[in-house]
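Researcher: Next sequence.
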Amino acid sequence: MEKSSYLITRKPTHKLLKKQIAYYYFHASTNEAHSDAFYFYPNYLHALTIYKGSDVLIDQKSNNSSVKPASDHDQLTTLYTINLDTKMRVEIEGAFYKIGVVFYPLGFNHFIEQTLDLMMAQSFQKINLNAVFTERLAAISQEQPIEEQLEILENALLAIIKPFNQNTLQKAIKEIVLSNGAIRVEELEKLLLVSRKTLLRLFKKHTCTTIEEYKRIVMFRNSLNYALQNKELVNLTDVALYSMYYDQSHFIKHFKSITEESPKTLLPKIVQIGNEDLYWRFLEV
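Model: Next structure:
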């Protein structure tokens, strides 16, 4: 591509990938003096992030990551994020090339060889996917047209996709999302004809969360998306009611516990990236 920097979102094109992946984003800069920092916020659509030619340092205590050019321009670093309850900071220095794959709930489970709880020791970490994925992705470059990058990425994903048959868990998550996180565990037990103990085991094994954690993150993220997509039309009471909070104060308290800022203060600072629900708050550096 001719542009020195870009951030472009794309939808999956292959029918198998459309079922598991919400969207991709391609983010790059050839500017060696580039300096950027931003926060991203919890989401139940979790992301696989791939850097090519960068060293990535993760500080688990502060939930920060820093990105700098690597001596090996072909080096691939793959990270996965289960972002549950706090904002996370990313700092990028120098030229970089980054690809994001944002999965629907349980989508990532179709691309891994072991259960998620065995793969993820932390909520944000470097991971190793199947070697075939890495081999196929090696041909990708930020100079290629976006449609060519997209084709290489999708071919790499298609090479490792596999069935993931957990119907009970899939139905439970669907009900949680449809209810904006308001459905009670007792209702899930009756609806799915399964015990609380079984549900909890499935959530821990395949999402690395509890049921209540998952419900809370659905409520938070849906409220954030709704507020940002309708900020000229709604007030905080409207957002709280839409998102199934008890009242406005409940919404504000939960929002501040995650973002460390009130909705009134933070929402005007958040920027939508592309045409998807990719929202970052850029920081002064």
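Model: The mean pLDDT is 93. Residues 211-229 form the longest helix (19 residues).
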